[in-house]
Design goal:
Layout lengths: L4 E8 L6 E6 L12 E2 L7 H13 L1 E8 L4 E2 L3 E14 L7 E7 L1 H8 L5 H17 L1
Parallel strand pairs: 1-6
Antiparallel strand pairs: 1-3, 2-7, 4-6, 5-6
Helix pairs in contact: 2-3
Amino acid sequence: MTGKKLAYGGVVVDAKGRILLREPTKHFDGYVWTFPKGRPNGGETREETALRETLEETGVFAEIVDRIPGTFPGSVTDNIYFLMRPTGRTESPCKGETASVLWTPPDKARRLIGETTNPVGLKRDLAVLEAAIALR
């Protein structure tokens, strides 16, 4: 770890093996497609933070399957991710943060994440994707 603050997120994979990606509004910080994540609110556990951020940023209710091994450095935070599966319930994602969401096969997820222009975020998200696929 780099000593940065920690953020927690989720990689949601459905029964068909598709990965859930989010498109940040106005491609914030160079991210075109990425995973949901964020910092904890007061008193939240890692898991609670990851589930809340996943719901807020994608509109998908999920449950945690396992922790993805490793800590993934980003530009501002060090990030811990959890492998998740959808529970079936959905709502609209936070429009201030997310322009759209997409379920996609892993190969297409790699290509879409590859559109990110933030080099640190690109490297992180590709590493997270590969770790999630290996864990699954």
